[in-house]
Amino acid sequence: MNDKRTDRTLRLALILAAFAALGPFTVDMYLASLPQIMDAFDTNASMIQASLTACLLGLGLGQLVMGPLSDRYGRRTPLLIAMLLYIAASVGCAFAPAIEWFIALRLLQGIAASAGLVISRAIARDRYSGVAMTKFIALLTTISNVAPLISPNAGSAVASYSSWAGVFISLGLLGILLTAVASWCVEESLPAARRVTGSLSAVVSNYGLLFRDRAFMGYALVNGILFAGVFAFVAGTPFIYQNMFGASPQHFSILFALNGLAIMIGSQLVKRMVGKLTERFIIQVGLSLSLVSTSAILITVVAGGSLPAIVAATFLFAVSVGIIGPVSVTLAMASQGRIAGSASAVLGTLQYALGAVSSPLVGMAGERSAIPFGIVIFTTSILAVAAYFALVRKAEYADDDRNDAGSQIRNVSGGI
């Protein structure tokens, strides 16, 4: 019986990871081709990075739409429609006539890919809770982070045999495959009786409840701010590694993939720690590691350090993200069962919206300076720690005070 349950859990994790991985594939697969795309459109690095920003905005803002749609119409139908939109946007990117069209289509591609991210988390919340959910999210994170390991290499391989446009044709083919998976393998996890009903005002009201939940917003901000640091890395390292240190596209892909491996290591550490250590302690370990590692990144780039030093420090930062991600998502969504889609949307939107802010900042000093990258990624750790103590810890202290007050009332009542 346990073996069958384990097999079902692994199968579900693999399916959901495939959709969760669509976001990283959409972002990462074209990174090694950024210099070639810049030449093809006869534009500059800022405009090319704007295409990344547009994709990140789409991935973030799209979740605000896809989350409530999945709460109202179920998980399966919105996922299928989004995959069809993704196919069209991917093919459109390959044949974009100008950089402006390319940027607009990247926005649309991001919106479509957001469904995989938000709905995969919502399905996980539909089926699991508590420690079981933490372990499942950690497993889902581990599997889905195979995408950063292979997507840059896949993009480099496709571009070496065709062109940068071939990368987007490949993403369109991936969309076709996921449409088939959604049709045949994804079962509806939200019965009609549990779906949210009502008008647009009800959707807005649900978001209002989430934004007023101090603990939820604290965990969501911790997660989102740290992922803004990840996106700063995504935007900055193609130029830092290749233009400043002379790494080839293949070499860059290998170095970039190390961070996917690091996130997987962090997620596996969570699976081992949860149940033995409190989730509060685990997230504090992750925040401490992020602060130390990003401090090392900033010091290294200011001092003009070597490529291996930067790679080592960012690897540790990625480990901290792998630790914090599953725990913060679980704790944020723990009490949001009926509106899991909307809660998942807020989590994802913060990640990509903050990433859209951080990614252009790394190029402020041009293509041959890593100092803005160091400042941005260090700042994300500082802000994540501040969000945790300002929101999560205050909410925990307030709960403790209420529990203590309730205990005193019960004791007095007993005395009477």
Overview in brief:
Residues 12-398 form the Major facilitator superfamily (MFS) profile domain. This protein is mostly helical.
Supply database-style keywords:
Growth Hormone, Chain: A; about 425 residues; globular; about 0% strand; mainly alpha; 16 helices; disordered C terminus
- Given helix and strand content, the structural type is mainly alpha
Give the N-to-C terminal Cα separation.
52 Å
Output the CATH class name: Mainly Alpha
Helix content: over 70%
Low-confidence stretches: 401-416
Q: What are the secondary-structure elements, in order, as H or E?
A: HHHHHHHHHHHHHHHH
Count of separate structural domains: 1
Main pleated sheet: none
Strand fraction = under 5%
Cα shape: globular
Folded structure, characterized:
Residues 12-398 form the Major facilitator superfamily (MFS) profile domain. It comes from Paenibacillus methanolicus. GO terms for molecular function: xenobiotic transmembrane transporter activity. Its main location: membrane. The structure is a single chain. With 416 residues, this protein is mostly helical. The chain has one domain: MFS general substrate transporter like domains (Growth Hormone, Chain: A), CATH 1.20.1250. 84% of the residues lie in helices and 0% in strands. It contains 16 helices and no strands. The longest helix is centred in the last third of the chain and has 45 residues, at 371-415. The radius of gyration is 21 Å and the shape is globular. 54% of the residues are buried. Mean pLDDT is 84; it is low at 401-416.
